[in-house]
């Protein structure tokens, strides 16, 4: 049987609550309205991201790390509006009460009476252990994150806040991806479920309670990784699929990829493997994988986040080099990796 590509369909979905989405400048205005001179005087330190780098996964690492450090050291948080708007097209991104507006932030950079000691830290991947020590970002400091902050240990203490308030699907994305599951159950199980889209976590619980199916998310990155020798083999993917199929007899798999033609060929004989629609955005793909109970992921930060947000078991291919000096800086202990990890591009150095 050929693999199915599930199209989007319009459906009426019951909701307990509507979560409003802020748009561009109005979001900035909402932050500004909640802040005044009195609140500015209480800002002891600021953790900031003033530029954008990489794609969605890298930016999520930056925001999560900045949030974790701001929470840890009782600082406020500043993100450029461009990054806020990009992430809010996918997520609720509730960063209150830490987030400050551009006008508040600029008042500290342009007013000498409010001047702060400015420090920037450029990180490629590693966990900067000194930043989690007391007073690592003292009062009167503006700390800027630059580069690729890809160690989850900078925000591990607040991972539930990231999963429940920040990197949770916006209402519009949640409605869109729910169509995928509604169509599946209607065609394959003969009934049309009525999901209450109260929020991301509620919908995920409802999916897990449908005992006829265990959903496994698969992310396959290939385009730029083939030449870099980071791409996963067919054998890795089928071994991982076999593991879950034996563990969960009702396992069904959702595949997202930057190379859908490859995936269609690879899984053409698998009746329980489905590709996301071609019209899905990168944010749609991330959200639908985060709703799965378990994960199979290849290299890259996008796949990392799908596994991290989904929870459950996560099988990660060891061929991908994290770039960190120690594998435990990048891979949470519940990522299932059998064997050593290559440390850097085009090297044989491994992380045990």
Automatic annotation (TrEMBL):
A GO molecular-function term, please?
Answer: galactoside 2-alpha-L-fucosyltransferase activity
Q: Where in the cell is it found?
A: Golgi apparatus, Golgi stack membrane
Give the membrane topology: Single-pass type II membrane protein
InterPro entries noted in UniProt:
Glyco_trans_11 (IPR002516)
Per the record, the GO terms for biological process are: carbohydrate metabolic process
Lipoprotein listed as a keyword: no
Coiled-coil stretches are none
Name a GO CC annotation attached to this entry: Golgi cisterna membrane
EC assignment: 2.4.1.-
The name on file for this protein is L-Fucosyltransferase
